[in-house]
Amino acid sequence: MKIGVLSLQGGVIEHINHITKLGHVGVEIKKLEDMEGINGIILPGGESTTIGKLLRETKMFIPLRNKILSGLPVWGTCAGMILLAKVIEGEIDGHLKVMDIKVKRNAYGSQVNSFKRDVIVSEISSGPLPLVFIRGPVITEVTSNVKIVCTVDDKIVAAKQNNMFVTAFHPELTNNLEVHKYFINMCR
């Protein structure tokens, strides 16, 4: 299976390494042609405003949005979650606006407030998963067609809607491959 990782800015190589460890091909998506033939795409953590701007500059914004709306499996981690959200708290406009969620940026504070928590996410694994939060956003509202996958301290930090999956945390920064396995299964 061929899984793309949007490679305009942010944590790319860590996702590609996890995909490779699972026996699949991870490809960097830097231009429109790179999206051909992928089975799914990961929008990594980073700076959502910068990634959104670069998506427009590279002319990938509308084609990527259309592919997602047509069913391409997509997983947004941290900034990727913000890119997919229909509404960003305190902002007039969003980015791709494809997932029926409202998000709050930096809900856990600044970089110095980063933390790791071991949590059982029954949708993904029977054992606890290491969840790493770095300036993590949270989901503050969902519609009825969005499934809440994980909460931490009563805050929604992972959700799924059809072909779209989002996490406020960074599984690529751990040695655990379960969340990547979960997304690859979505791509089958």
CATH T-level topology: Rossmann fold
Count of helical regions? 5
CATH homologous superfamily identity: Class I glutamine amidotransferase (GATase) domain
N-to-C SSE string, H for helix and E for strand: EHEEHHEHEEEEEEEEH
By CATH, the architecture is named 3-Layer(aba) Sandwich
Gyration radius, rounded: 15 Å
Shape: globular
* Main sheet: strand order: 2-1-3-4-12-11-10
The counted number of beta strands is 12
Oligomer kind: single chain
Unreliable runs, pLDDT <50, ≥5 residues? none
Number of domains: 1
The end-to-end span amounts to: 8 Å
Largest sheet: 7 strands, mixed
Strand content: 25-35%
List the defining traits of the structure above.
single chain; 188 residues; alpha/beta; Rossmann fold; 7-stranded mixed sheet; 3-stranded mixed sheet; 5 helices; 23% helix; PdxT/SNO; pyridoxal 5'-phosphate synthase (glutamine hydrolysing) activity; PdxT/SNO_CS; pyridoxal phosphate
Provide structural commentary.
With 188 residues, the chain is of the alpha/beta class. It has one domain (2-186): Rossmann fold (3-Layer(aba) Sandwich). The chain is 23% helix and 33% strand. It has five helices and twelve strands. It has helices spanning 13-21, 48-57, 61-69, 79-84, 178-186, and strands at 2-6, 25-29, 40-43, 74-77, 85-88, 99-104, 115-120, 128-133, 138-142, 147-152, 155-161, 164-167. A seven-stranded mixed sheet has the order 2-1-3-4-12-11-10. It is globular and about 40 Å long. The mean pLDDT is 95.
Could you write a compact summary of the structure shown?
The protein has helices at 13-21, 48-57, 61-69, 79-84, 178-186, and strands at 2-6, 25-29, 40-43, 74-77, 85-88, 99-104, 115-120, 128-133, 138-142, 147-152, 155-161, 164-167. The protein has 188 residues and is α/β, with parallel strands linked by helices. The chain has one domain: Class I glutamine amidotransferase (GATase) domain (Rossmann fold, 3-Layer(aba) Sandwich), CATH 3.40.50.880.
